[in-house]
Design brief:
Chain A is built from 14 helices and 5 strands. With 351 residues, chain A is an alpha+beta fold. Classes of the chains: A alpha+beta (351), B mainly alpha (324). At the A-B interface, α5, α10, α11 and α13 of A face α1, α6, α7, α8 and α11 of B.
Chain lengths: 351, 324
């Protein structure tokens, strides 16, 4: 596994990654829906400091693109048109972190749009769309994980605390959910929900579906912890003093499960982000024109795009640092808080 | 024998449970296959109602479930509206392709994971183990979807693999041997994607299981008797470590099916995946139910196989089963 000292480092990495996505409006030069039909599929632009005459410029610049002579969809740099990059420019309106209205963008250019990571079939800036799409995908993952953990703790605590037939029934259902292939489960649930919905509805719909599918594993782990915590001396003593079930669970038993819950959440979030990506990629998730990491990849299903426009694959790579960050965070957590129980649980996490 | 009978009973309950659940969900579904027709001005509402009646979509749920079970017993599994044919033959062709893909991938993945994992455990915390650990960590950090799409782009741009579909154009004119070769060539890319997504977890588990038994007294005794290292690792250690690995095989069937679903859609392999996706988008109710049920059957089959292997490999389970 990846070892770094302590989970705190990984937490800082994760906060930095999420902060980048949260500030999408500021970092992205354009609105994600802004089109430029004149320039579909233009390749990523290079930022230069040295121009074609070997002169050095302090201000970074890029060259405007023009159609390569004799072609109708291939762009090349036109070295006679130097466009300087400007910082903190005024552009499209957005709301920073969802509430602070602003028009200041980190960078931009006058005269020509700049495509750091290329543009898509409608001439929309991929760099902006990846940043904005991350907001949708990460939120879906985080909300889904929160819902799953809530369900898992509720069901696991009920099964472990009350025991008896409730335990047997709940754990049987949990086994069923753990055994079934998750993608088929997602498909089955998604199949019977409305297809044509607005992006906002779709977002909540698939968050619900993703969150409802994964509760079984955390429930089983929480149940195990509750089962042993229930018999601890201080819990028995509290019960002897007349503590109610609710008080016991809230005050004495559930705090014992905190490390399991935290580790499980760290394992689940990236998987749920991936689940959102998969659904949206297949056209069952968040629809156009709202970007998400999944539907940004949808155009790759066309052979022509696959052959000619490799930069349409870039959005797929956006999730990799998040995956690494969460993987490292989860394994560091396990080492620091570790019990063997959690160790075995995460080993199976891909199944 | 009783042991297997009980397993079969459990499997039957699981199948019935899944089929009832999918049927229940299907009533929650707003709209059905014929809703599209309703928007078409050339089709009268009477025709749509008649079609609905013909396919029994206007009947209450228990009636439909019983009808479906009876059609299942007749080997039809309901009727696909989109393909205008019974579901079972549709599923059968697709399921065969999925099985071909997943079985090949499982075989290759285990054939690679066993030696790699044993090697890693034998050189624990030394260079080969460390580099393998890094390699598997890196592979784990690349999600299936990213991996599959990346491989596809690589294949398309390099031209090393044929992409898309299962056979080349005009393959029906080839000799059987050439046809097999053609299919094998088309299989390469999806199999590589599946193997790469399975491999890291398998290698890690093999490493862990073997490393656990390497310290046991009986293996130290065997080593001190001068039994060759290779025999020690593969004959003695691997066999003692087999138990958790066989359970892992049972667990991994579910992941394999999910992975295969995605890879099939991305690489347009004509398996269950694309069929299921199209059926969902077309609201082709019985095909969806059939596809989900088919995956459940695969899952049960895989777990049953794991049970049989465990029974064969672990004398403790045999004695426990016969003591019942």
């Amino acid at each position: 596994m990846i070892h770094l000292r302590g989970w705190k480092r990984w937490l800082i990495v994760l906060i930095a990654l999420h902060g980048t996505i949260a500030c999408a409006g500021f970092l992205a030069p354009y609105d994600p829906a802004e089109q430029d039909r004149e320039r579909p599929y233009s390749p990523p632009m290079r930022i230069h400091l040295v121009d074609s005459q070997q002169r050095f410029h302090l201000r970074p610049f890029f060259y405007a693109q023009r159609l390569r002579p004799g072609s109708f969809d291939q762009f090349e740099e036109s070295i006679d048109q130097r466009i300087p990059l400007h910082f903190f420019v005024t552009g499209a309106r957005y709301h920073l972190l969802g509430f602070a209205p602003s028009r200041i963008h980190l960078f931009g250019a006058e005269g020509s749009r700049i495509y750091l990571l290329g543009s898509d079939g409608y001439g929309r800036d991929q760099f902006s769309r990846i940043l904005y799409g991350g907001q949708i995908s990460l939120l879906a993952g985080l909300f889904g994980a929160a819902l799953t953990m809530f369900l898992g703790v509720l069901i696991g605590a009920a099964a472990g605390y009350y025991g008896g037939w409730r335990d047997a029934l709940l754990m049987r259902v949990a086994e069923l959910f753990v055994a079934l292939p998750w993608l088929y489960l997602l498909f089955a649930l998604r199949a019977f929900l409305p297809l044509a919905v607005s992006p906002v509805q779709a977002f909540f719909l698939i968050t619900l579906v993703i969150g409802a599918v994964g509760w079984a594993r955390p429930a089983r782990l929480v149940r195990g912890v509750v089962l042993s915590a229930r018999e601890r001396d201080f819990v028995r003593a509290a019960r002897g003093f007349g503590a109610t079930d609710g008080y016991l669970l809230r005050r004495h038993i559930l705090p014992e499960t905190a490390s399991v819950i935290l580790t499980q959440a760290a394992i689940l979030v990236p998987q749920f982000v991936l689940a959102e990506m998969t659904l949206s990629f297949l056209g069952l998730g968040v629809p156009e024109p709202v970007p998400s990491w999944g539907n940004l990849l949808a155009s790759l299903q066309q052979y022509s795009v696959l052959v000619s426009y490799w930069w349409m694959y870039i959005p797929a790579l956006a999730i990799v640092p998040f995956f690494l960050g969460y993987l490292g965070f989860a394994s560091a957590l396990q080492q620091d808080l570790g019990t063997e129980k959690i160790e075995t649980a995460s080993g199976e996490s891909r199944w | 024998m009783r042991y297997f009978l009980r397993r079969l009973m459990e499997a039957a309950f699981l199948l019935i449970g899944v089929s009832i659940l999918t049927f229940l969900f299907s009533t929650l579904a707003p709209g059905n296959y014929f809703d599209e027709m309703r928007l078409n001005p050339q089709i009268s509402s009477e025709t749509v109602a008649a079609l609905r009646a013909q396919y029994q979509l206007d009947r209450p749920l228990p009636v439909r479930y019983v009808r479906w079970v009876s059609s299942l017993l007749h080997g039809e599994m309901g009727f696909s509206f989109a393909y205008n044919s019974p579901v079972a033959p549709l599923l059968w062709v697709r399921a065969r392709n999925t099985l071909l893909l997943t079985l090949t991938a499982t075989f290759i993945a285990w054939a690679l994971a066993l030696p790699l994992g044993v090697w890693s455990a034998a050189t624990l915390h030394r260079l080969p183990d460390r580099s393998l650990s890094w390699a598997t960590a890196a592979l784990l950090a690349i999600p299936d979807l990213v991996l599959a799409l990346g491989l596809l782009i690589l294949a398309v741009r390099s031209g090393w693999f044929p992409t898309g579909g299962m056979v080349s154009l005009g393959s029906e004119r080839l000799t059987p041997l050439q046809q097999t070769r053609d299919i094998a060539l088309h299989m390469e890319l999806p199999v590589v994607a599946l193997v790469l997504s399975l491999l890291p977890t398998l290698v890690r588990h093999v490493r862990g299981a073997v490393a656990d038994v390497l310290h046991t007294p009986f293996l130290r005794a065997a080593a001190s008797h001068g039994i060759p290292r290779h025999t020690l690792l593969y004959r003695y250690a691997l066999r003692a470590a087999a138990n958790p690995l066989i359970s892992l095989f049972g667990f991994s069937v579910g992941a394999l099916l999910s992975g295969s679903l995605l890879v099939e859609v991305v690489m347009s392999w004509p398996g269950l995946g694309p069929l299921l996706l199209e059926a969902i988008l077309a609201r082709d109710l019985y095909t969806v139910i059939g596809g989900v049920l088919c995956s459940t059957i695969f899952l049960i089959g895989g777990n049953f196989l794991a049970d049989v292997l465990l029974y064969w490999a672990d004398p403790r389970i045999r004695t426990a089963a016969s003591a019942q």
